[in-house]
Design a protein that fits this description.
Blueprint (H helix, E strand, L loop, with lengths): L3 H21 L1 H5 L2 H20 L3 H24 L5 H14 L18 H15 L16 H14 L7 H20 L3 H21 L4 H25 L9 H12 L2
Length: 264
């Protein structure tokens, strides 16, 4: 692996390239925070795909793309004299030190003793709330633009960190069943609006149960999506090999192909 000096040299090279591109490339000159935003989101999802595929080469490449965006934003900030990359690094370093009193004791105090990672998470949220300017809730730190499933998971993480969660598995399972029962009542009443609301409650309860079991629901669902795509393509290929159009086959035949696809 590279030495610390080599890492710093590589980062310095990236900063130099960014300066040159910003000054000499017509496309790079035009970019703003707003124009880069959707590209940053796209790069984040591409990194997520690489992680799910456990493709370390692509993880490296996608991390590079994200790092470029960070350097790009910092360069724009330096042009307006609002901040530069040093300010970005200093801010995150200060934040990490402040939020890890079990590693970096506050000046004049002893190291905070923590029992486990859950206590670390609770301390993190409490410290984050203290440092938030004008923030009255730990939920204010959850980005509004997050996808709904990710947002639900993050909110549940945060409230659990301050003790707002069921004490055992039964509480989670009972809540899921309660929401399913309420959904069925609304279905019997043919109230579509209330059905949607109750279905949302079911999803929220399932996401919370996933968190309780240390499962990321977004990752779990995406793994299922990938598995479904692979298997359904196999069904399509089997139908084609047998001379059939998939839309013309009865469900029982499709299910037979599906079971074969599950066998790999």
């Amino acid at each position: 692996m590279n030495s610390k000096a080599q890492k710093l040299e590589a980062f310095s090279r990236l900063l130099d390239i960014m300066d040159e591109l910003r000054e000499g490339c017509p496309w790079d000159k035009k970019q703003t925070y707003q124009s880069l935003r959707h590209l940053t989101i796209e790069e984040t999802y591409e990194l997520g795909d690489a992680i799910l595929d456990n493709n370390t080469t692509e993880i490296k490449n996608e991390l590079g793309d994200l790092l470029l965006h960070i350097v790009f934003y910092a360069r724009i900030g330096s042009e307006t004299k609002d901040f530069d990359i040093a300010d970005v690094c200093t801010a995150i370093s200060d934040k990490l030190i402040y939020r890890h009193p079990h590693i970096y004791p506050p000046k004049g105090k002893e190291v905070v003793i923590v029992a486990d990672e859950e206590e670390v998470k609770r301390n993190w949220e409490q410290l984050k709330l203290k440092e938030g300017k004008g923030k009255k809730s730990i939920l204010e730190g959850v980005p509004k633009s997050l996808p709904a499933m990710v947002k639900a998971s993050r909110m549940q993480d945060k409230v659990a960190a301050v003790g707002f969660e069921w004490e055992n598995k039964k509480g989670f399972l009972d809540k899921i069943q309660e929401e399913i029962t309420e959904f069925n009542i609304e279905k019997e009443n043919s109230n579509q609006d209330n059905m949607e609301a109750e279905f949302g409650d079911i999803l929220f309860a399932l996401i919370n149960f996933a968190r309780y079991n240390n499962i990321n629901p977004e990752d779990a669902l995406e793994r299922t999506n990938k598995k479904f795509i692979t298997r359904f393509k196999h069904v399509e290929q089997q139908a084609k090999n047998n001379g059939f159009a998939i839309a013309d086959l009865p469900l029982k035949d499709l299910l037979t192909y599906w079971e074969k696809a599950k066998l790999g």
